[in-house]
Amino acid sequence: MRERVLILGSGDQAIELARATLERRDSGFHIVGFVDNKPELVGKSLINPAVVGLTDNIVSLIDQYQVDRIVVAVEDRRGKFPIEELLSLSLSGRVAVEESARYYERLTGKIASEMLRPSWLIFSRGNRFTDFEQHVRRLFNAGLAALGFVLSLPIMLLTALAVKLDSRGPIFYIQERVGKNGRIFKIIKFRSMKVEAEAKSGPVWAEEDDPRVTRVGRIIRKLRFDELPQFINVLRGDMNFVGPRPERPMFVEQLSEIVPYYSQRHVVKPGLTGWAQIKYPYGASVEDAIEKLRYDLYYIKNQSLLLDPIIVFETIKIVLFGRGGR
Predict the structure, then answer these.
(1) Residue percentage of the chain with pLDDT more than 70
(2) In terms of Cα–Cα distance, which of 322, 324, 247 is closest to 290?
(3) What is the dihedral of CA 58, 60, 61, 62, to 10 degrees?
(4) What pLDDT, on a 0 to 100 scale, did the predictor assign at position 212?
(5) pLDDT band at 313 (very low <50, low <70, confident <90, very high)
(6) What domains are there in the chain, each with its CATH number?
(7) Is the alpha carbon torsion for 97, 102, 105, 111 positive or negative?
(8) Which of 32, 72, 97, 226 is deepest in the core (most CB within 10 A)?
(9) Are 248 and 178 in contact (CB under 8 A)?
(10) How far apart, in Å, are the Cα atoms of 311 and each of 58, 194, 221, 231, 295?
């Protein structure tokens, strides 16, 4: 009962759409092939499905391959583009016609920045909550943070004691992070690294089996206990319970220069947990930042009063099973 999908285009976007669909066998979609206006590509396999025909014959190809959906992945539409045919097919109800970015978003739960057009975010619902929704959201954040602080207080006391006995230095680690609209605030964490861990190297990404991490630090990072003091940041209004994780100013500056739309992460408050944290394993590199941005943009575009509790529930599952920390 899977939908049969025909991809209009043969470039990198089209191939990525097919790859993402093939990786998700239970997605409910089946790629029947590609169409393009280049005769030399007909019959050629681009990844697994082949180019099954030319753009001029798209109407007959719909019937031949019993297509249910056309996904438009043409990167340059200044040439020949079958707008009349697509309009007729869509309005008649014969097939669904969908932009590549929308299809990819629904399929993967993230937004590919390389497929993204500014209008995709401009016309999204985004942060447009009603006054009632904003009030409910503030109560949700404050209530959940207060409850989390009270329930985790015994764990935090034990963690503080362990940090103090394990290595010299302060119990808490205060670090500058970038918040909503680029505002700098100070995040609170249990110290998990040695004192002056970055004295020689300066700010660097964390690594797997990072030698700067203490014995207790390795445990509390795995269990995410080092993040528990951030309930205070939520109660102070620096952060929401759910949102993109706040990054350090130096890394934000670097990533904003090389990653398209990276600064859009800061149109909302950062979070203690987020969509990227439940969908993507912990990572600390430029490549990881790009991948996490895709999930962050999805959250920013689709944030709602329903999505936040889903993320909180999934986060609890991750913490209980102790996966994803580093």
Answers:
(1) 88
(2) 247
(3) 90
(4) 85
(5) very high
(6) 3-108 (3.40.50.720), 131-321 (no CATH)
(7) positive
(8) 226
(9) yes
(10) 41, 32, 20, 16, 12
**Is residue 120 a contact partner of residue 113, using CB atoms and an 8 Å limit?**
no
User: 199: pLDDT confidence band, cut at 50, 70 and 90?
Assistant: low
SS (H, E, C) 74-114: CCCCCCCCCHHHHHHHHHHCCCEEEEHHHHHHHHHCCCCCC
Residues facing residue 6 across a β-bridge: 33, 70
Q: How buried is residue 163: exposed, middle or buried, by Cβ count under 10 Å (0-12/13-18/19+)?
A: buried
In the chain, what is the greatest distance between 2 CA atoms, to the nearest angstrom?
A: 74
Report the pLDDT value the prediction gives residue 234, as an integer from 0 to 100: 96
Structure-block tokens of residue 233: 């940041």
Res 79 pLDDT > 80? no
